[in-house]
Structures are given as C-alpha cells and as structure tokens.
Inverse folding.
C-alpha cells in the first residue's frame, strides 16, 4: 500500500558523512511516522531514527537509537513525502544495510508497517 524507495548509500571513509533519502508513495491513509533501521551482517535489525509525520510542519518530533545519537540527524520534507538521514562522523560499525520505514502509529518504540528495499552503507577505516 505504501512504497518506500531509499537512495544515497555508498562507500565512505570513517569520520566522513553521508546523506540517505527516502521517498514514500501510494498512501491511502495518514502515515504517522517515518524512520530508519539498519542491519549489519550477522546481526539483528536495529532501530536508528524516527520522525513524526502528522500535519504539515517544518519540523517533527525526532527520536534516535543510542548508537547514533549525536551523530545522525533525521529530517523530513512533508510536501514531497521524503525523509532524510544525515549521517555524520561515520564509524566502521555503522556499516549496514539501511532501511527506510513507515509506521501507522507515532508511538515508541517505532513499529514499521512498511519497508523500503534497503541501501548499503559501507564505512572503511
């Protein structure tokens, strides 16, 4: 029902930055939250960040996972149905497939009802 497409992944050196983008389409309901998860090889999928989606505002309520707090910034463009993840001071342990997600509720922990296909982020030392 909701289609999510990520872009912006790639290979970067530790300490550098990368910006991921996600566009949502096909909604016939009001999505309440959008966010990002990641999954590294051999590990469970991990929550990264979330931003609320209700209403047309220039900023939303954000929440971050402990491992990225202070380094990553989530933002949105409500009119374009887009969400972004600015990743700063990247570390090798940030290497993972990053998934865009959309949720029908804005409660925490985030519940992802729809998933994107994922985009690979690789951080080298």
């Amino acid at each position: 029902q909701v289609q999510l497409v990520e872009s912006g992944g790639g290979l970067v050196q530790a300490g550098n930055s990368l910006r991921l983008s996600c566009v949502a389409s096909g909604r016939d309901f009001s999505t309440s939250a959008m966010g990002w998860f990641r999954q590294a090889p051999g590990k469970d999928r991990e929550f990264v960040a979330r931003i609320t989606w209700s209403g047309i505002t220039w900023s939303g309520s954000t929440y971050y996972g402990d491992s990225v707090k202070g380094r990553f910034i989530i933002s949105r463009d409500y009119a374009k149905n887009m969400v972004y993840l600015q990743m700063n001071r990247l570390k090798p342990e940030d290497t993972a497939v990053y998934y865009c997600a959309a949720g029908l509720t804005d409660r925490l922990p985030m519940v992802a009802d729809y998933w994107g296909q994922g985009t690979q982020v690789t951080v080298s030392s």
About this structure: The mean pLDDT is 92. Residues 33 and 52 are 4 Å apart (CA to CA). The chain is about 0% helix and 50% strand. The longest strand covers residues 18-25.
